[in-house]
């Protein structure tokens, strides 16, 4: 039996009967990928440990800002941060999709972003407001699309995130790599901290690398984590997963499940 299916069996009791969505009472078939993401979404929403990891990340980030706030810089200081699962929590979207037996898709995602209803990540708002009080500008560098701009700004402004305006919101244009957007910030600012839930948010070295290469690169950057890089936990989605699929976005759920099973090591 597939490992991800085992996880779902433990969680729901059975894969034999269709599961009903709590949102619209539509039935969904047993999908190991969607059911695995349901399990990790429950951890994100309901575990104290998840919140503790977020607070830990932002506590460390505050220490770094305190250390660097007195340093003289030829340019204004800035923080470059991702949005999703770094400062905004999209677990309600993940739960909605998983309860329907579905994964991410562009149409449902845009519906979600237009709602501007994502909550804040624990500790994120307080930290960025603190950094802003020290004269540090915040740049939101996200791979949300241009169609998500209005909803994204509305969501950020709802919580009074600092610098929540068009000039500080850098959306994906043609490529997902954030390197060019990072360079555009560095033209006039000194980036003192980079934050994200995906290694691609922190360095272009990780872009389109396979899973083994990403692990080796993470080891190479060991001294940067908690220093120059602040990483937030996200077991639900990200390049850690797509790297295992060799960035083949056309795989079926069954094919993805086979890849995940083959990637495991046991005894």
| Count of strand segments | 9
The CATH topology label is: Rossmann fold
As laid out across the biggest beta sheet, the strand order is 7-6-3-8-9
**N-to-C SSE series?**
HEEHHEEHHEHEHEHEHEHH
Major beta sheet summary: 5 strands, parallel
Just name the CATH architecture: 3-Layer(aba) Sandwich
Tally of DSSP helical segments: 11
Q: Topology, please?
A:
Elements: H1 3-12, E1 19-20, E2 27-28, H2 32-46, H3 48-68, E3 77-81, E4 88-89, H4 91-99, H5 106-115, E5 119-120, H6 124-133, E6 137-141, H7 149-158, E7 169-170, H8 179-186, E8 190-196, H9 211-220, E9 229-231, H10 239-244, H11 253-263
Parallel strand pairs: 3-6, 3-8, 6-7, 8-9
Antiparallel strand pairs: 1-2, 4-5
Helix pairs in contact: 1-2, 2-3, 2-4, 3-6
């Amino acid at each position: 039996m597939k490992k991800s299916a085992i996880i779902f069996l433990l969680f729901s009791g059975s894969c034999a009967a269709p599961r009903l969505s709590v949102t619209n009472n539509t039935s969904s078939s047993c999908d190991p990928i969607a059911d695995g993401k349901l399990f990790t979404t429950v951890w994100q929403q309901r575990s104290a440990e998840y919140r503790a990891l977020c607070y830990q990340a932002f506590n460390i980030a505050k220490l770094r800002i305190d250390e660097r706030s007195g340093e003289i810089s030829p340019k204004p200081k800035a923080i470059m941060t991702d949005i999703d699962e770094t400062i905004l929590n999209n677990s309600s979207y993940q739960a909605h999709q998983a309860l329907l037996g579905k994964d991410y898709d562009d149409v449902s995602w845009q519906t979600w972003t237009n709602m501007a209803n994502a909550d804040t990540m624990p500790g994120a708002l307080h930290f960025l407001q603190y950094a802003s009080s020290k004269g540090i500008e915040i740049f939101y560098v996200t791979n949300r699309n241009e169609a998500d701009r209005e909803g994204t700004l509305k969501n950020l402004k709802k919580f009074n995130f600092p610098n929540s305006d068009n000039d500080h919101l850098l959306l994906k244009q043609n490529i997902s790599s954030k390197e060019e957007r990072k360079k555009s910030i560095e033209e006039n600012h000194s980036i003192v901290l980079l934050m994200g839930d995906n290694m691609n948010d922190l360095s272009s070295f990780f872009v389109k690398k396979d899973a083994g290469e990403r692990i080796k690169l993470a080891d190479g950057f060991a001294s940067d984590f908690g220093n120059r890089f602040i990483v937030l936990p996200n077991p639900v989605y990200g390049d850690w997963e797509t790297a295992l699929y060799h960035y083949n976005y056309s795989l079926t759920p069954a094919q993805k499940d086979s890849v995940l099973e083959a990637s495991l090591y046991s005894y």
